[in-house]
Give the backbone structure.
Amino acid sequence: MKPLLMACLLTAGIAGCQTSGNKQPGKPANFGEDVAFLRQHLKNVVVLQLPGDSSRVLVTGDYQARVMTSSASGDAGNSFGWINYDLIGSGKLTPHINAFGGEERFWLGPEGGQYALFFPPGKPYEFTHWQTPGMIDTAHYNVTAEAPGEVSYQYTGTIQNHAGYTFKLGVARTVRLLDKKTIESRLGIALPEGLRSVAYETENQVSNLGDSAWQETTGLPSIWLLGMFKPSEQTAVVAPFRPGADSRKLITDDYFGKIPARNLQVNDSLLLFRADGKARGKLGIAPGIAKTGAGSIDLANNSITVLLYDVTPNGKYVNSKWEDQAEPYKGDAVNCYNDGPLEDGTQMGPFYEVESSSDVIALKPGEARKYSQVTMHFEGDAEALKALAEKLWQLPLDSVRQFLQQK
């Protein structure tokens, strides 16, 4: 495979080779404008909110119960999710993947390898044969329940992996808003005064609806949650990890070529990764050192994002590299991606991503497995954000600013 093509298609979870983008000159659209646009083009748009609360979350069953975007300040507030206006507005589907955007989408792994879900049996790991399964790309998920601040969906289908095994599975996904009390409980801290927040949890269940057990020898899937957010020149991804003598070896930073020092700073137990949407790069953190609480700091828009998820340190995680693998269950628990132009100058975004995965799912017929993730956004003045960053990561905002000012 040509280097450009490999860089374009390895797991950022995304087909960056597409040239469509978000047509929003100047300031990004606010939440209300995004809602109006999506309701114009989609049939199944749900806006979650709680009485007396300004937080909002927009979900659509048309795109696999995807959280498209959210706001901490109602319709006029900043809209956190990156949305592919061009693709959605065209009303057309594209080959290989439909990257509609959205700040949390449900996927299944692995992407590559002998148990890949994105390559048919007998075909080489080449772009021509790479295809996002319809279940996690174009399928419509049906609403099964709706309540204030909460909506549930389900879908049933089949996926065949590269080894020829066919999974018959059911997917159930619930999205629910969280109030301030729950946010503080999940974080284990009191929020500083002066912050506005929006937070939601997704509960994702996969069931084995077939008549045989899922086994390592025929391939095991994982639940994969990916979020696409709006970048800025003053945004950095923040990812904590467990310190140790070998920690650096368990951080992969060369998926698309080595990430330069200007764009990645690895400290004893936390890394900063530039999220400006101007230079393609991806990193992965192994489950042995991955910690919950990855997110980002956007100094341009005075906001902090936090993702909470479970990590099984000794668990088996799928490997998505495009090759037959010696260790197909030795992959990443957490991934981060910064979008950027390809060699021909085209670009799908710009956006950046923070992703988490479950460990592998081995189910007998009739069994089910759940994996949950919480996404939180906080807005406020510099002092409130400074206090929050210290509480979350013991991270001075000045050190983030200095990192981002590197030439």
User: Anything to note?
Assistant: Confidence is low (pLDDT under 50) at residues 1-27. The helical segments are 3-9, 31-41, 85-90, 180-187, 382-393, 397-404. The two ends are 32 Å apart (CA to CA). The longest helix spans residues 382-393.
